[in-house]
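dumping the sequnces here before i forget
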Amino acid sequence: MDLVRACLDRIDAVDARVHAFLSVDGSSALDAARHWDARRADANALPLLAGLPIAIKDIICSQGLPTTCGSRILEGWRPPYDATVITRLREAGAIVIGKTNLDEFAMGSSTENSAFGPTRNPWDLARVPGGSSGGSAAAVSADMVPLALGTDTGGSVRLPAAFTGIVGFKPTYGRVSRYGLVAFASSLDQIGPLARTVADAALLLQVIAGRDPRDSTSAELPVPDYSASLPGGVKGMKIGIPREAIGVGLQREVNDAVLAAARVLEQAGASLIEVSLPTIEYAVPTYYILAPSEASANLARYDGVKYGLRVRTPDIHAMYTRTRGEGFGTEVKRRIMLGTYALSAGFYEGFFLKAQQVRTLVRKDFTVAFGSVDLVLMPVAPTVAFKLGEKAHDPLQMYLTDIYTIPVNLAGLPGISVPCGSADGLPIGLQLIGKPFDEATVLRAAYAYEQATDWHTRRPPLDGNAGTRERGNAARGTQDVGR
Amino acid sequence: MSQRVIATDYEIVIGLEIHVQLLTDSKMFCECATAFGAPPNTQTCPVCLGLPGALPVINRKAVELGLRTAVALGCRVHGTSQFHRKNYYYPDLPKNYQITQYEYKIHPPLGTKGSLELTADTSPRRIGIRRVHLEEDTGKLVHVEQHGQILHSLIDFNRSGVPLMEVVTEPDLRSPEQARLFLGRLRSLLQAIGVSSGRMEEGSLRCDANLSLRRPGAELGIRTEVKNMNSLRSVERALAFEAQRQEQLLDRGRPVGQETRHWDERRGVTFSSRTKEEAQDYRYFPEPDLVPIAVGKQWIDEVRASLPELPDARRQRYASAYGLSPYDAGLVTSSMPLAIFFEATVGHYPQAKTVANWLAGDVAAYLNAEGLEIEETALTPNHLAELLRLVDAGTISIRTAKEILPEMLRTGANAEQLVADRGLAQISDTAAVGSVIDQIIAEHPGPASDFRGGKTQALTFLVGQVMKKTRGRANPELVNRLLREKLQP
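..and the predicted 3d for all of it:
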């Protein structure tokens, strides 16, 4: 209860400036905390996340709480059901404290595309937190919650984690159920944890991972004990560095920090091997055909007929066009149009089908690389966090923010972002990418790196007390609550 | 029939698209019930309402029923087949896309390239089956009207997501009659293999047709799509109307517009509902929320082994075991209920050929005229057998039997009761018939002496007079015999 109250106080203190949350459900959270407090006498019987507050990206359905997807078109809609991840979190004792800001329908890299105003980066309020899970990342980074869930379609967990100096993990496509995640691009979307440490991320993944009969694309594979596998170290591990991802086209400090991080892993016993991913240069254009195509169908249901915004007009055609015209923001409309175009008769073969073929090639590139290495290492983003408004009117520049993250979604692989440096007082992220369903190795290497460095202990200079708060992993935090 | 008039100038080309609601307890992609007639929106969930975040999961039973059909129709079953999204906006379609299968070479539907044999009155004919695929049904719009104006519309999503199978034929049908026969044959097949109830009036079997005319041997003409035909009979009527309409256009040198037309059962016409000139682009693409359907050889073999006797085999068995003519065998197997009725009747009355004659004759004529199926009439196999026994026993004449059959079909009355109530029993009493014959001979001395003089055809006239006097009830054999005796020179 103290922990929940501390989180609520912190939200009160800083979120007016950061704007990480779209809604906070303090009273339910306190009720839930009271429930777990009453059970803490028997600490051994407590589930994994008992009493731990968590923030949820506002694109994951939670019964009774608003789920806006950052869009006017769903403003006020309250889902009548819980997403599978929410059910699992509740069963594990986690307390959903509120829903976080995002780019509308997760379409964006800066959280500026929210219909409810942008989220700001706790490290520099003039800068973006990255996106689209910018609210979840900022909430964790600014100490408002120890844990959060985001979603990652083209980098939307990893990029904001990198920009705000925390850990963000996109699991393998199919590892975490998408049931109840409002779809942007169904073949790419994946829910992932955001946390301050690798251990916390592992703990959260443990709870949400695993086969769900409600999601046909969730994998029927056992979920290993991630926390137990953390301390294994990287001795003997082979880590590939793609020559296409290093040296040119990215900020010098980012390049240097990522290479320095590679050497840290080398010193810890890993061997570094140069690999090649020749097709990743086509990943961004490929993504911007496939993701909008799927989105154009996924977002067709917002028509004013059943839920959300309805602009009343005398005839149904006008109702469709006015509801969607007024309900969607510019970027969402742009992508719906892109996708509709790419799927149209006469263009399908040249665009959608071609992009699917390129996707296969990208996947093949990784398969080849993983023939000789255990992990692939590269930057998360080419730069540190940029200024609000800096790329807002140049969609192409904005899209290129995701050049290192998008290939991982196209290939469906697990990828983590861990803090690995800073430039001008802004965090830099290191990306480690694993084989399909080998989250354990990714976490183990990330943990080894984290143990060898102190980047993850640095907090944003948001206010006077930021440096004084006790930090540690959330699991320990729970037990503190328990005692 | 109408198509014969046309056939001299044009050949009619028809292809059918048949939508079949599958006999599953739950919907195509969720666990909601499929029962017909529940209060609106009581059989729904986030999945079939298309709520944000909900995901479909394939109903294995529906795949199995699709597979049964594909195998029974001799289709090539594809090892992996995929669902697609068909994108269009309509308020009864909650996601504004329909999950369906699409004929795309790398993502084939469940089954392709099958066929079904049609034994029409003429020679047998193979009708190609282009594909068998699975999809979800839409919801249903209910328009609230006042003074003929729509006030507002309501949507019932109970039907949304109900498993549908679409069977598409090649344009191999050549007359409205063939279309009707084919549909009846397909329906009896689907009933036999437990895939569909076949109830067209409930919408569990729906048929759209594409029809065009051409000069024999020429390229296919421009087709129209005819919808809203709710019975076998309306399929035949609608297509006959449409063929005639197109013929008149062509004869006047006017083009046939490519369009969708609705059949108006009451007025007996088709009318244009929307033009297809600017063909809608459905932007099909593979459904990313579902993994492909994998059908292994073992599953196909299991399905094949579990199929019951199919109507084709049944027809051949009837022909050989009961000695039925090809036409009679085809007719009594044209629907599963009719075949069951036939066998049940034969159980009570073993002269199968007689039973088949009656079913293919008077019973079929009644069903055709009334637009009914055998199971929709009140006739029972037991009653029909009883009727035939009364004929054999000489209690009633065939003519009387034909007269009372419609009433039995309509009301379920039993033959013996009807005969007793109306005094229809045949007069087989020698004395009674003899006295009528005496009267007739007295009234018609001319013909009587003609017969005696060797003009045997005069007997026919006299028999007719006796029958007339007894209102058909005199036993004709007896009349014949007694007349001959009495006129013996």
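Residues 1-7 of chain B have pLDDT under 50 and may be disordered.
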